[in-house]
């Protein structure tokens, strides 16, 4: 079974979200998603300042097996991107919940975060 940290929130398209102390939300793809993709070779990230809405195609991950869209799990403004992924995208495979994060969002409504799937709910979807 995939690694599914209990403290995170999830969406069905295999993105995870972590609420930070400053109220921002960090987003990445799950261990299950990176496992399905295989060795990640390229990531296209959003731009800082982008305004995103739930379900927007916001990023693309390319692996040796496939290319996959990453969807915005919450609405808000992109306030940071993980520039390390541009030179070293395989971090996503080795540390999807840590150094392999994609972007940070200042959410429009924090209640949207609270309504997302828990780890147990996400695991039951797999």
From TrEMBL:
Pfam families: GCV_H
UniProt record, GO biological process: glycine decarboxylation via glycine cleavage system; protein lipoylation
Annotated positions of the N6-lipoyllysine modification: 65
Any single Gene Ontology cellular-component annotation: cytosol
Entry's cofactor comment: Binds 1 lipoyl cofactor covalently.
Keyword Metal-binding: no
Necessary cofactors: (R)-lipoate
CDD domains: GCS_H
Keywords: Lipoyl
Top-level division of the source organism's lineage: Bacteria
Domain Lipoyl-binding residue range list: 24-106
Statement: the UniProt record of this protein carries the keyword Ligase: no
InterPro entries: 2-oxoA_DH_lipoyl-BS, Biotin_lipoyl, GCV_H, GCV_H/Fam206, GCV_H_sub, Single_hybrid_motif
Family annotation (NCBIfam families): gcvH, PRK01202.1
Binding partners and assembly: The glycine cleavage system is composed of four proteins: P, T, L and H.
Family as reported in the entry's similarity comment: Belongs to the GcvH family.
Function: The glycine cleavage system catalyzes the degradation of glycine. The H protein shuttles the methylamine group of glycine from the P protein to the T protein.
Protein name stated in the entry: Glycine cleavage system H protein
Species the sequence originates in: Psychrobacter piscatorii
């Amino acid at each position: 079974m995939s690694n599914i940290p209990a403290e995170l929130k999830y969406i069905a398209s295999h993105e995870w979200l972590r609420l930070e102390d400053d109220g921002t939300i960090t987003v990445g793809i799950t261990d299950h998603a990176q496992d399905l993709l295989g060795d990640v070779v390229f990531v296209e990230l959003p731009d800082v300042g982008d305004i995103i809405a739930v379900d927007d195609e916001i990023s693309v991950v390319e692996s040796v097996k496939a290319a996959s869209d990453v969807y915005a799990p919450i609405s808000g403004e992109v306030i940071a991107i993980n520039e390390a992924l541009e030179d070293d995208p395989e971090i996503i495979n080795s540390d999807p919940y840590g150094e392999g994060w994609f972007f940070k969002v200042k959410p429009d409504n924090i209640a949207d975060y609270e309504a997302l799937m828990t780890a147990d709910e996400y695991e039951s979807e797999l």
